[in-house]
Structure prediction request, 232 residues.
Amino acid sequence: MLKVKNLKKVYQEHSLLAIKDLSFTVHDSEIVMIIGPSGCGKSTLLNIISNNDNNYLGEVIFDKSKIGYVFQEDRLLPWKTVEENVRLVNMEGEREAALKILDAVDILPFKDYLPKNLSGGMRQRCSIARALYYGSDLLLLDEPFKSLDHLLRNEMLKLIAKINQDTNISILYVTHDIDEALLLADRIFVLSKRPSIIADDFRIIEHPMKRNLESPKFVDLKNRIINTLERP
Prediction:
């Protein structure tokens, strides 16, 4: 699905090496979470993969056609309704398909609402629906739920797990929240401090959202991730 090979990113104007050497693969239908210290280049990595940043060394190989991107902010047009915001990315698409996606993310009853009349969780549901309506083969998520409260964030994680199960879409998800990654990921990549490399990676086989984070296995896994993050 997605291969990143020997990726290096330098901000020339500051002579800053942000990403030193990253290589990894995201397979079909896989949920990969990326965790790392602030400023280590996680968002930069997503911008490169999404082709919003072409100034890098190495290779990004994507054998599908469309990448959807859900940002930290919902980036909805305030003068357009929920349905209009979703359909904006695929004007040739069928309306019924858009309504079906809105139903899948549980905001169909709000299709005629403007963003200002929606909660933060509803706006992010709309952002996810927009990415799905675009026809994404790979969904990039850049800390999309960081501003939500704990209960709503867990609800949104369940939604992502359901979307992955129902559509087999591949997901690359950046987060600072270790519990979030432990609840959702098939694999977790831990990035080092800048200039970033993959300091460690972890595979989880239990079904997402059916995991007990208080079990000895997950407590140990969380501690291993924390220890990796704390390396000099």
Notes: The beta strands are 2-11, 16-26, 31-35, 57-62, 67-70, 138-142, 170-174, 187-191, 196-203. The radius of gyration is 18 Å. The chain has a mean pLDDT of 91. The chain is about 35% helix and 25% strand.
